[in-house]
Amino acid sequence: MYCLLSAQVQYQRAETLVRWRRSDGIIVPPYQFVPLFERNGFINKVDRYMFELVCRQQMRWLKQGLLPVPISVNMSRMCLYDPHIVDEYIGVLNVSGLSAAYIKLELTESAFFENISIMNNVIEALHKVGIKVLMDDFGTGYSSMMMLKNVAIDVLKLDKSFVDDIGDDRSEKIISNIIYLAHSLQIEVTAEGVETAAQFEFLKSVGCDYIQGYYFGKPQPAEDFAALLQKEFYDGSDAGADKKG
């Protein structure tokens, strides 16, 4: 297993993506192995491994004098049924020495539907130590609006299916109102799958907080992402206080 990082430094967010590199060098995409791991229970170990890996990597960058951006790590809905999972994650964070400000946990919208009581307990425990929670794939479920009322998420990730329909007047009105609603609840919004300048300009015009997608760059190994951090650090030093990063 190894990780890729997705997002751009100047937009102050990143997401860690797991990939399986076989012994022959071929990369196995997640849709081919994640469902299997969810069925056999191995996904809990994979998720914890990725969380620990990111904590260690962030600490290395800090010790190198870089200023890492917060990185979100996916947590499978299967992890929520482990009563010790939150304590284990907090333990990993404490051992690493990393501030909770540099790491977030990301769950798919479907995970929120399965047991709201468990979800709220998990979110409350994570919030107590400063870890923020993101809802991934927002808009793919049947009760999205109700979910916003019932769970205290920090960031809503607008599903790519909405972004793909930018240009359609009806779809743009829906996106605008989702962003407005989220902001009224003090929830930030990230749009996923942004690939064109037109999509980016529209999302910026309606107040979307962050974007993620190939418009700014493809997922890349940690060492390449570190080069971006280093460039942003030096560019930011030269540009002054108005520079994001």
Question: What does this protein structure show overall?
Answer:
- It is a single chain.
- The protein has a single domain, classed as TIM Barrel, CATH 3.20.20.
- α9 links the parallel β8 and β9 (210-211).
- The longest helix has 21 residues, at 43-63.
- α2 runs parallel beside α3.
- It is globular and about 50 Å long.
- Strands 1, 2, 3, 4, 5, 6, 7, 8, 9 and 10 form a 10-stranded mixed β-sheet that branches.
- Mean pLDDT is 84; it is low at 1-5, 7-11 and 237-245.
- It contains 10 helices and 10 strands.
- With 245 residues, it is α/β, with parallel strands linked by helices.
Observed structural traits:
alpha/beta, 10-stranded mixed sheet, TIM Barrel, 245 residues, disordered C terminus, disordered N terminus, single chain
* Helicity level: 40-55%
Could you please say which CATH topology applies here? TIM Barrel
- Named at the architecture level, the CATH assignment is Alpha-Beta Barrel
Rg from alpha-carbon coordinates? 18 Å
Shape summary: globular
- Report low-confidence residues grouped into runs of 5 or more: 1-5, 7-11, 237-245
Total helical segments: 10
CATH homology-level superfamily: EAL domain
Assign the CATH class.
Answer: Alpha Beta
Strand content: 15-25%
What is the SS-derived class?
alpha/beta
Give the integer mean of the pLDDT values: 84
Total strands: 10
| SSE order | EEEHHEHEHHEHEHHEHEEH
